[in-house]
Structure prediction request, 286 residues.
Amino acid sequence: MMNKTLPDSLLEAMRSGQCVPVIGPDALNDVTDPQGNPIPADSDSLIIAMNQGRPMAPKLMYEFPRAAMNIELKKGRKAVTRFLDTTYRDTTWSVSSIHQQLASLNPDYIIDMNRDTQMQLLWRDTPHILVVGVARITGGSERYRLFHYNGSQYVATQASWLDTDLPVLFKPVGTPLPESLYIASDADYVDYLTELMGGFGMPPFLKQQRLGKQYLLLGLRLNRDTPRMLLSDIAYGAGKPAGWACLPDPTANEEKFLSRKGFQILSMTHEECLAALVEATDPCYA
Prediction:
């Protein structure tokens, strides 16, 4: 029997490939290193990890980009990159159950608002296109890098050479694989968001494909300006509804933003939503 806790419109959008999962920091809640330490994912945990386990000044604790800008000004941009490489490239992490469930649904387009490599490792046998946001580069206004994963390795490529029928993983704020490319500090975000609004933060084929798409927000809180701006620009041209947000306890600001953008709030956790989706798409329950 089909799980009735999810809107029929969401189930239909997932089955048709119309719905794009958007992964936020809370989707990594169960991920730990071999010593049992949780992966730094949300803003506070990233700031504390970057500052050797100590909180920073209250004005810097407001949001990770602000704290990263402070470190960049004191120690240089490479210091932030080294921290993110150590965290996401050089540390062994357990596999996220949410990402495993998501991979089992075989979506053809995923937006990952984190900098970890979970989805890339789960797709290591799946040829795909990787789109990575970049900032503060010379030579043109494009603010993304494209890679084709052929089933064994990533190869840098251009949009004109791509098989755009392949699944797409879009990591707007970066990843260490195959190269260390990150949007981290305030200066990075200002540059990237400016070009994203201008149409240069995504490849043309993705801007075309996104028209009319709907989005499922999984573990993404929207109580800060940065994720709201990213989502607004990436989801430009969304369908109706624009999508669904798994938020059992939304703040007033989140409710206001999501309503304005045409999203429906689901009063359930992202874990509950994905479990229901997996059940609903299992042939045994169809």
DSSP finds twelve helices and eleven strands in the chain. The first strand starts at residue 19 and ends at 23. The chain has a mean pLDDT of 94. The radius of gyration is 18 Å.
